[in-house]
Design a protein that fits this description.
Number of domains: 3
Radius of gyration: 32 Å
GO molecular function: nucleic acid binding; RNA-DNA hybrid ribonuclease activity
Distance between the termini: 55 Å
Structural class: mainly alpha
Strand content: 5-15%
Number of strands: 7
Protein name: Ribonuclease h protein
Number of helices: 16
Order of helices and strands: HHHEEEHHEHHHHHHHHHHEEEH
Shape: flat
């Protein structure tokens, strides 16, 4: 259950994943921030070893062992942008190869060796690098730029901002599963949580029927409340699909919605509803939510029969399903007028068509003596890989200048702002002051 709903979970967060996120934050602060506790831990545990090379031991403190446990997961996502070069040459990840100590063969890798020791004025000392590193690594390093007037900057690579937050650490380090169609469908935002959670249990066959309780070693006499005078064991598929009551309920709504009813498992019936092509957004909502409401009302009626000694009634279940569905439609689409009969309501929903609005969009020429700058920027993922571009035209519509650029990882707003700045600078460089 401790997975996002689109991955088949209930949206809960695992305590282990949450603790790992907080541990990652501790390791990030220890590795990248200057503090008294960092100096204390380095003096106590890292006199001879770099923190990345330090190993876990039983005589260490609980907090330090906690950071040692998370270190292997976090370090691959920590990179450094070079400045003064006051980071470890061997153990900090400042190249695409990770810590260079992993590439060292028969070479000492002391933690005190700094990157700045391989600077030669504003370039790299390539002869010194070639004595200790393979040629392909040296060829890569010589193209790395640095500014000795700036501080070395740590980068948390999964986040576009470059800074580690508990949110980004949780998303990066948590256990993941593939997205599922059923997981994305049962969790409709207008359905109560209890119904979606119940449907997740139905699809996993985890509903507390008599047969399910017997699996835990509880010996009980099982009888389905749908047939008070006959002996049928109660299990999920029988209660929600095969029983006489369930078939009457499903038959009513399948006939009214034009969906064929087969004698099959409840999962197959639900999937048939979900895979039915809809003609508009209202019908899509009904087809997605109605199977969940049907199963929920059958289960509620069963519980009333089991614990309140009431008789199961398919008429009552149908009435409650229609009532809840109408409430959902009115909440989602308040402007829609519902009919008294369900069949009339669904027929009207099926005939709805989206209103098509047309609007003329065209480019207007600037006044004489002016130029017009049109720019745009976008980001894949927002934030994500981003780019922008722009055009400059005169009052005749003739193209004067154009540009297109890649901006790295950023949001759409930042990409548009950078494109605007680039366009304004281009106009100024060309001597245009009257710009629209």
């Amino acid at each position: 259950m401790c997975f996002p709903v689109e991955e088949g979970g209930a949206g809960f967060r695992s305590l282990k994943d949450t603790c790992d996120a907080f541990s990652a934050k501790m390791w990030w602060k220890f590795r990248t921030k200057k503090s008294l506790i960092k100096d204390f831990l380095e003096a106590k545990y890292c006199k001879r070893f770099h923190p990345v090379a330090r190993r876990k031991a039983q005589n260490q403190s609980h907090s330090w062992r906690r950071m040692m446990d998370i270190k292997e997961k976090v370090e691959p996502y920590i990179s450094w942008n070079l400045g003064r070069g006051e980071i470890s040459f061997w153990w900090d990840s400042w190249t695409e190869f990770g810590p260079l100590a992993q590439l060292a063969i028969n070479t000492k890798t002391p933690k005190r060796t700094m990157v700045r020791e391989f600077y030669h004025q504003n370039t790299w000392n390539q002869s010194k690098l070639r004595r200790i590193l393979p040629v392909h690594v040296v060829n890569y390093i010589k193209d790395i730029t640095f500014n000795i007037n700036n501080e070395d900057r740590p980068i948390w690579t999964p986040d576009p901002s470059g800074d580690l937050s508990c949110k980004s650490a949780w998303h990066t380090l948590r256990a993941k599963k593939g997205t599922t169609f059923t997981g994305m469908t049962i969790w409709h935002k207008k359905l109560p949580f209890k119904i979606s959670f119940f449907m997740m249990r139905v699809l996993m066959d985890k509903v507390a029927t008599d047969v399910s309780i017997k699996r835990f070693g509880v010996n009980i006499a099982s009888i389905c409340n749908c047939y008070p005078n006959k002996y049928y064991e109660e299990f999920t598929n029988h209660l929600l699909s095969e029983s006489h009551i369930a078939n009457l309920v499903w038959s009513f709504f399948c006939n009214s919605c034009g969906i064929r009813l087969f004698q099959d498992q409840v999962r197959h019936r639900i999937m048939r509803w979900w895979l039915t092509k809809s003609k508009n957004e209202v019908q899509k909502t009904v087809l997605q939510c109605l199977p969940s409401i049907i199963c929920w009302q059958i289960w509620k009626n069963r519980c009333s029969a089991r614990f309140d000694e009431k008789r199961m009634s398919h008429h009552f279940i149908i009435q409650q399903v229609i009532k809840m569905t109408n409430m959902l439609i009115q909440t989602r689409f308040p402007e829609l007028q519902l009919q008294h009969l369900w069949q009339d309501t669904y027929n009207r929903i099926e005939k709805l068509s989206p209103a098509i609005q047309c609007q003329i969009v065209y480019w207007q020429k600037p006044p004489v003596g002016w130029v017009k700058l049109n720019v745009d920027g976008c980001s894949k993922g927002n934030p994500g890989p981003a780019g922008g571009g722009g055009l400059i035209r005169d009052h005749h519509g003739v193209l004067i200048g154009a540009f297109a650029e890649f901006y790295g990882d950023c949001s759409c707003n930042i990409a548009e702002a950078k494109a605007m700045m680039r366009g304004i600078k281009m106009c100024i460089s060309k001597g245009f002051t009257n710009v629209i």
